[in-house]
């Protein structure tokens, strides 16, 4: 009896391994087939989708595509919402409403809500679950539910080269300059100058760049050593494998 039980357990484990591999292989095929690119847009008809840009599958809510422009080599993670207009089917005019520059990265679960114009500059990276919106609920009338009152809309502009940490929120009317760092969980409104770091809710400037003095207050950690030009990925892998065996003076 114990032998039969062991045989049955081994057979069950084997079946589960086979089923698991099949599910993962099938899901990989589905993800690849469901990804959106310029060559394979599926049902989505963006105003423009650049070369090398890819929307991972499954996508989040997407509508108003004729008023959405995506630059080249953008990476849009899974379950990212991209909307232009308050609802599908509206005529929003001749100009784009939501614009992403080249090389923009939107992390998994992020939302970009553009009821009026929203622009995100080139090479801006967003961590997961970032929320960028041009619309906010109003609560002027205390007798009406907030959700039923007409919202306020203001354009949003995010400059090139910015970094928005996980869970950051960018509110209507915000204007971020070039290479701005938004800390995780920060809630940004108003104007943020170039080369600034903001944190908190509401966000405030906690570090700025001075041409003569550098970062103020000074950074607490040394700058990372860049990878030398010409180093190949294969060489980096080889160095990583040798790393634990190197003496400190050799590293």
From TrEMBL:
<dbReference type="Pfam" id="PF00132">
    <property type="entry name" value="Hexapep"/>
</dbReference>
<dbReference type="InterPro" id="IPR018357">
    <property type="entry name" value="Hexapep_transf_CS"/>
</dbReference>
<keyword id="KW-0808">Transferase</keyword>
<protein>
    <submittedName>
        <fullName>Sugar acetyltransferase</fullName>
    </submittedName>
</protein>
<dbReference type="InterPro" id="IPR051159">
    <property type="entry name" value="Hexapeptide_acetyltransf"/>
</dbReference>
<dbReference type="InterPro" id="IPR001451">
    <property type="entry name" value="Hexapep"/>
</dbReference>
<keyword id="KW-0677">Repeat</keyword>
<dbReference type="InterPro" id="IPR011004">
    <property type="entry name" value="Trimer_LpxA-like_sf"/>
</dbReference>
<comment type="similarity">
    <text>Belongs to the transferase hexapeptide repeat family.</text>
</comment>
């Amino acid at each position: 009896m114990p032998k039969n039980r062991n045989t049955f357990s081994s057979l069950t484990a084997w079946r589960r391994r086979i089923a698991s591999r099949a599910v993962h292989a099938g899901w990989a095929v589905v993800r690849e087939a469901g990804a959106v690119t310029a060559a394979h847009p599926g049902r989505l008809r963006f105003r423009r989708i650049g070369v090398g840009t890819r929307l991972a599958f499954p996508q989040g809510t997407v509508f108003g595509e004729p008023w959405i422009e995506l630059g080249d080599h953008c990476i849009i993670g899974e379950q990212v919402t991209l909307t232009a207009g308050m609802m599908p089917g509206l005529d929003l005019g001749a100009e784009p409403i939501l614009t992403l520059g080249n090389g923009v990265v939107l992390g998994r679960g992020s939302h970009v809500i553009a009821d009026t114009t929203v622009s995100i500059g080139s090479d801006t990276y967003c961590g997961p679950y970032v929320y960028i919106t041009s619309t906010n609920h109003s609560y002027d009338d205390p007798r009406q539910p907030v959700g039923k009152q007409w919202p306020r809309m203001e354009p949003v502009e995010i400059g090139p080269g910015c970094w928005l940490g996980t869970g950051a929120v960018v509110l209507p009317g915000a204007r971020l300059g070039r290479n701005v760092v938004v800390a995780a969980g920060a809630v940004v409104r108003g104007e943020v100058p170039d080369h600034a770091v903001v944190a908190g809710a509401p966000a405030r400037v906690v570090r700025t760049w001075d041409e003569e003095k550098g970062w103020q207050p000074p950074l607490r950690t040394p700058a990372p050593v860049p990878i030398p030009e010409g180093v190949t990925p294969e060489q980096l892998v080889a160095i990583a494998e040798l790393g634990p065996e190197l003496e400190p003076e050799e590293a």
